[in-house]
User: Fold this.
Amino acid sequence: MPTDVHEIKTRARGGSIIDEHNVLALCRSCHVFITENPGWAVETGFVVHSWATEADMRAAQRARFKFTYNTNTAVILESDENEDYDF
Assistant:
C-alpha cells in the first residue's frame, strides 16, 4: 500500500513536490529501495538528473511503465491525466 511520496526530480535538483507529474505514491520498502539504489533508479526512470528536459521526463515515464508492466508491480501510482504519451 502506498504510504510515501517520491519525487522523480527532487527539489534539490529543481523539481517540485506540488507538480503531480513529478511525484509517485510508493510503499515504504519500494521508496527505500529507490533511495538506496540511485543508479538503478535513474536507469528505470524513478529518478532523473537536474538537467532532465521534458523529453527526458517522458522517457523516464516510459521506463517506469515498462518496468512496472514487465514485473507486474502494482504499487506505483502515477497521474497521467490529460497526457498523451506514446509507449
Notes: Strands lie at 4-7, 23-26. The CA atoms of residues 44 and 67 lie 7 Å apart. Residues 54-71 form the longest helix (18 residues). Residues 74-87 have pLDDT under 50 and may be disordered.
